[in-house]
């Protein structure tokens, strides 16, 4: 194919595709039966889809930031592919949230036009990674938790959530294997890699508790068999976490207070240290004054989320509705 | 040509040696007085080719004399590599891409963790050597892994089983 032909192919708009941010993407749920089951509270279902979608969207963005920074080309590809899977899950879930909400918003509005305090992702997803060991530790925790969650979601009374769960299980199985294999390789590697992997395990541990704390929305929807009660996922998570740490010759972190309960965030200190400046924004104001029980599911985030949103939403906010 | 035959000939943008029918993502083509409804399913949730596939289907059907085309998505049952046709597997092998083996069957209980690189028997599409090693579980697209043959030393892609 000549260069001219390649250029033609990119610019010839005889179809509807827009390979740019926003506008023109087909609804990923186009043609899917999106009826809401009769006994389900629409506001709860929308909020639940939003939370699971935000987890995937924010984690995906953090993974994308590793592209061009990964230790090897193969890992770059792996992280980009994992990020893409999660972005796909996020699009399905945000579309479902918007549709159930029925307030005229769509996936783009939800992704690009909400402030940090309106995001419902767990804080684990927004955490910055000090090094590659931190990344694989965090990805292992995230994928192990999400895999257990999606696997149970396949039995959801909401057919769309059940379908998203069934597709996601296949994908996240690969994500978890990838992260676990790296944790073992680094943990059971050289003295230096072991030490850094152990530091990463210690650093991620305070973020684990939040994943299993049921939010009132989840409790209500679990009672009608639509959502998964996250506290039920803990035994499976603990078993996998212990299995990987053992294979990696790593020790579990000493009993640490759950970050969202302690009122002090390790990630805040870390983010502040490696960024150098204040990001401002809604989460910036909340650096040290978390509500005792507030977590990401309540919209209580670390400053790291504001940084992500500044990047994620920058173009969409400065050029609303733009396309090319 | 029937609408089903036209849709079945449209190829996948990322693996153009395969038609959508070969890949198993073309789930139904229904022709009625109101037009054509094509039902497709994504391979992976984030497959970026879905938009192009929708456009290609619409364009091919319009060109074949079907002006009214609706492309619908189904998410369930989730796509599996078991749906890649025998002809599709032959075309992949001919293009130097190792076709997938049988998709893993889930036993009851939690999804098992794989801590070692997969030891699945995958033969080399170049020299036919029966035992190759996995370099990475992810490759240029989500659906392919990267492997290497210990005999001819050639790296190759393998459509991984899901």
From TrEMBL, chain A:
Pfam family, one: PaaA_PaaC
Protein species of origin: Actinoplanes nipponensis
Biased composition (Gly residues): 275-284
Official protein name in the record: Phenylacetate-CoA oxygenase subunit PaaI
Any one Gene Ontology cellular component term annotated for this protein: cytosol
GO biological process, alphabetically ordered: phenylacetate catabolic process
SUPFAM superfamilies from the UniProt entry: Ferritin-like
InterPro entries xrefs: Aromatic_CoA_ox/epox (IPR052703), Ferritin-like (IPR012347), Ferritin-like_SF (IPR009078), PaaA_PaaC (IPR007814), PaaC (IPR011882)
Chain residue ranges for the region called Disordered: 253-298
Domain of life of the organism encoding this protein: Bacteria
Automatic annotation (TrEMBL), chain B:
Residue ranges constituting the PaaD zinc beta ribbon domain according to the UniProt record: 113-160
Annotated source species: Actinoplanes nipponensis
MIP18 family-like domain sequence ranges: 9-64
InterPro entries: Fe-S_Maturation_MIP18 (IPR052339), FSCA_dom_sf (IPR034904), MIP18-like (IPR002744), PaaD-like (IPR011883), Zn_ribbon_PaaD (IPR056572)
One Pfam family named in its UniProt record: FeS_assembly_P
Domain of life: Bacteria
Family matches, as PANTHER family: 1,2-PHENYLACETYL-COA EPOXIDASE, SUBUNIT D-RELATED (PTHR42831:SF3), FE-S PROTEIN MATURATION AUXILIARY FACTOR YITW (PTHR42831)
Name the record gives this protein: Phenylacetate-CoA oxygenase subunit PaaJ
Gene that produces this protein: paaD_1
High-level lineage: Bacteria, Bacillati, Actinomycetota, Actinomycetes, Micromonosporales
């Amino acid at each position: 194919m000549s260069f001219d032909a390649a250029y033609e192919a990119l610019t010839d708009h005889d179809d509807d595709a827009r390979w740019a941010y926003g506008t023109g993407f087909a609804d990923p749920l186009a043609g899917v039966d999106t009826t809401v089951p009769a006994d389900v509270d629409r506001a709860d279902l929308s909020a639940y889809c939003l939370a699971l979608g935000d987890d995937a969207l924010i984690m995906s963005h953090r993974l994308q930031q590793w592209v061009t920074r990964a230790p090897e080309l193969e890992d770059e590809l792996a992280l980009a592919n994992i990020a893409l899977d999660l972005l796909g899950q996020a699009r399905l879930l945000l579309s479902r949230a918007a549709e159930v909400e029925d307030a005229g918003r769509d996936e783009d509005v939800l992704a690009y036009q909400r402030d940090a305090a309106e995001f419902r992702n767990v804080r684990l997803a927004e955490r910055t990674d000090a090094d590659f060991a931190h990344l694989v530790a965090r990805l292992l925790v995230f994928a192990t938790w999400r895999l257990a969650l999606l696997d149970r979601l396949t039995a959801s009374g909401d057919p769309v959530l059940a379908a998203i769960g069934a597709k996601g299980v296949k994908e996240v199985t690969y994500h978890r294997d990838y992260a676990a294999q790296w944790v073992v390789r680094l943990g059971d590697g050289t003295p230096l890699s072991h030490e850094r992997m152990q530091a990463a395990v210690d650093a991620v541990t305070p973020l684990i508790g939040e994943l299993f704390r049921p939010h009132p929305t989840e409790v209500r929807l679990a009672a009608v068999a639509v959502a998964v009660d996250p506290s039920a996922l803990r035994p499976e998570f603990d078993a996998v976490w212990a299995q990987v740490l053992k294979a990696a010759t790593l020790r579990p972190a000493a009993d640490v207070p759950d970050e969202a309960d302690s009122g002090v965030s390790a990630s805040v200190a870390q983010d502040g240290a490696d960024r150098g400046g204040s990001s401002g924004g809604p989460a910036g104001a909340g650096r040290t004054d978390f509500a005792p029980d507030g977590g990401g599911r309540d919209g209580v985030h670390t400053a790291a989320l504001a940084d992500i949103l500044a990047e994620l939403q920058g173009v969409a906010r400065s050029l609303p509705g733009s396309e090319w | 040509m029937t609408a089903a035959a036209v849709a079945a000939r449209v190829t996948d943008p990322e693996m153009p040696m395969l038609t959508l029918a070969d890949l198993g993502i073309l789930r139904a083509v229904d022709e009625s007085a109101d037009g054509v409804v094509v039902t497709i399913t994504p391979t992976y949730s984030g497959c970026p080719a879905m938009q192009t596939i929708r456009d290609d289907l619409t364009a091919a059907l319009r060109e074949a004399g079907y002006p009214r085309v609706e492309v619908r998505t189904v998410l369930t049952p989730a796509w599996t590599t078991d749906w890649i046709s025998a002809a599709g597997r032959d075309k992949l092998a001919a293009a130097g891409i190792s076709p997938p083996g049988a998709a893993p069957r889930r036993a009851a209980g939690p999804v098992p963790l794989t801590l070692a690189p997969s030891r699945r028997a995958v033969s080399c599409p170049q020299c036919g050597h029966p035992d190759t090693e996995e370099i990475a579980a992810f490759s240029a697209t989500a659906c392919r892994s990267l492997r290497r043959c210990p005999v001819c030393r050639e790296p190759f892609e393998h459509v991984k089983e899901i």
